[in-house]
Specification:
With 185 residues, the protein is of the alpha+beta class. It is built from 7 helices and 4 strands. The mean pLDDT is 93.
C-alpha cells in the first residue's frame, strides 16, 4: 500500500514538511526512529519533533495519518507474554526475579488483516505471535490513559489469579525496568 498522502490536515502537513509524501516513505521513516517515550503520550506530532517514539506513540501517529488520508488501517492493542527471548533488549530482569514472563501491552497496525509492527528496525511480530494473550482494536486517543489502565487492570488480575508472591506495584516496577532497558538499546 504505497498511497500518496494528500490530506491538508495537521499531521499530514507536518510529515510533508519533512519531505515525506507517501505511506511507504512515512512508515520507513518512523521505523528508523529510536525507541523512547515522548514528553506527552497523546501528542503524536512529538514522534516527528522529538525523533523517537514507543510502539504506542509511533503506531497511533501512523494510524492518525492513515485516518487523515482515508487509508484502511487499524490500530491494535495486544497483551502478550513478554519474555527475555521474544523481547530482545529487556535484559535478564525476569530471570533474576524468577518470572517466566510478564503480560505486556503492545501496539501495532493491521492493514488488510496483516499485522505490521513499525516500532523499530528489528520489530518482528512473529516473535510474539504465539505469545499473544488477547488483542483489541483501539483509537489513537486510547494509547494514553485507556491503554495504561487496561494493562494495569490485566496485570492486577493476572498477579492475583496466578498467586504470585509479588504485589502489583512490584510487578509494575519489574515491567518498568524492562521498558527502561529497551529504551537504552
Amino acid at each position: 500500500m504505497n498511497q500518496t498522502l494528500n490530506s491538508d490536515k495537521i499531521l499530514t502537513k507536518l510529515i510533508h514538511s519533512k519531505g515525506l509524501k507517501t505511506w511507504n516513505e512515512l512508515i520507513q521513516h518512523v521505523r528508523q526512529l529510536p525507541y523512547g517515550r515522548n514528553k506527552t503520550r497523546t501528542d503524536f506530532s512529538l514522534v516527528i519533533s522529538e525523533s523517537k517514539g514507543t510502539c504506542s506513540s509511533k503506531h497511533a501517529f501512523l494510524k492518525s495519518i492513515a485516518d487523515e488520508n482515508d487509508l484502511p488501517v487499524k490500530l491494535i492493542l495486544c497483551l502478550y507474554k513478554m519474555t527475555e527471548e521474544n523481547t530482545p533488549g529487556i535484559g535478564t530482569i525476569l530471570s533474576q526475579r524468577k518470572i517466566d514472563f510478564i503480560p505486556e501491552a503492545h501496539c501495532y497496525l493491521k492493514v488488510e488483516n496483516e499485522r505490521m509492527d513499525f516500532t523499530n528496525k528489528s520489530s518482528d511480530l512473529s516473535r510474539i505471535d504465539s505469545d499473544i494473550l488477547e488483542e483489541i482494536e483501539i483509537t489513537p486517543e486510547q494509547v494514553g490513559e485507556f491503554k495504561v489502565a487496561y494493562h494495569q487492570n490485566y496485570l492486577r488480575n493476572w498477579t492475583h489469579k496466578n498467586g504470585l508472591n509479588l504485589s502489583f506495584e512490584e510487578i509494575w516496577e519489574i515491567r518498568e525496568q524492562c521498558i527502561f532497558n529497551l529504551s537504552k538499546k
